[in-house]
Design goal:
MetI-like fold
């Protein structure tokens, strides 16, 4: 029995070519509108300063006094991110429990009661407001309220990430299997009991993985927030960049990469333990 020869032409090449062309047609005006011109980096007046700054990255700064300063600010950066995430959880967890329809006792009969529905919608709108304002904007506001330092960074991360975590936690819980949870509620269990014995066991790994990922993002955010006076490694890096100290910037970038890699390993370990 002979096998048919494979097709020499992709039968879907025409639709793919059409959508690729359509994407380019849409993308080109956007690039023109944003004045995206990477060739400017290699313009004669920009080439030499750029190459000189990059050349200053080698070797990275490694003086004992500077490394101690970097270690202190790195610890402060991790502390800002961790404290911000901890406060964000105080917002996200209650909000997720209230906005998860599967945990609504009044919805067991079909349609949710009016008061729980209104409360649920108000909380969802609050989460939208919190995550719609970037943490950089919150940091600028809090720097003017509480002054320069880590407090502004912690509060900024707490508000923005509280909105993000609350939304995603709710979606993760809603996507889980609801038979056990509904059975618990119908047999007299409270919302917290239904959560701990019904929804949490099956979603613990995904919730933990996303939380650690957000902690990793919070570390990156805390570095950025340092550029507006929220303390930490970013504030130190801002000063080094203004002084064109490329070696110091290179050292801090290496430390930052190590922090992100560590967060990734922690996330993988936690998924393994919960899997």
């Amino acid at each position: 029995m002979s096998l048919a020869a494979p097709a020499l032409r992709d039968p879907a090449w025409l639709p793919r070519l059409f959508w690729l062309s359509a994407g380019l047609v849409v993308l080109w005006p956007l690039l023109v509108l944003t004045e995206f011109r990477p060739a400017v980096l290699w313009a004669p007046e920009n080439r030499e300063p750029t190459l000189n700054f990059l050349a200053a990255f080698v070797p990275p700064a490694h003086g004992s006094e500077f490394l101690w300063l970097v270690a202190r600010e790195t610890w402060r950066t991790v502390a800002i991110a961790t404290a911000g995430i901890a406060l964000a959880l105080l917002i996200a967890i209650p909000a997720a429990l209230v906005t998860t329809r599967m945990l609504s006792i009044s919805a067991l009969a079909g349609r949710m009661a009016a008061l729980p529905f209104v409360v649920r919608q108000l909380l969802r709108w609050l989460l939208i407001v919190l995550r719609s304002v970037p943490e950089l904007i919150w940091a600028l506001v809090f720097v003017r309220v509480v002054g320069l330092g880590a407090t502004a960074g912690v509060l900024a991360i707490a508000l923005t990430y509280g909105g993000m975590l609350g939304k995603v936690y709710g979606e993760i819980l809603e996507s889980g299997e609801g038979q056990v949870t509904v059975a618990l509620l119908r047999n007299g269990a409270g919302r917290l009991q239904a959560f701990f014995y019904g929804l949490l066991p099956q979603n613990a790994a995904e919730l933990t993985s996303y939380t650690v990922y957000r902690w990793e993002c919070a570390i990156r955010s805390s570095v950025v927030l340092g550029f507006v006076g929220a303390g930490g490694l970013g504030q130190l890096m801002d000063g080094s960049m203004k002084m064109f100290a490329g070696g110091e910037v290179a050292t801090m970038l290496l430390v930052f990469i190590a922090l992100v890699a560590l967060a990734d390993r922690v996330s993988a370990w936690l998924r393994l333990q919960l899997g």
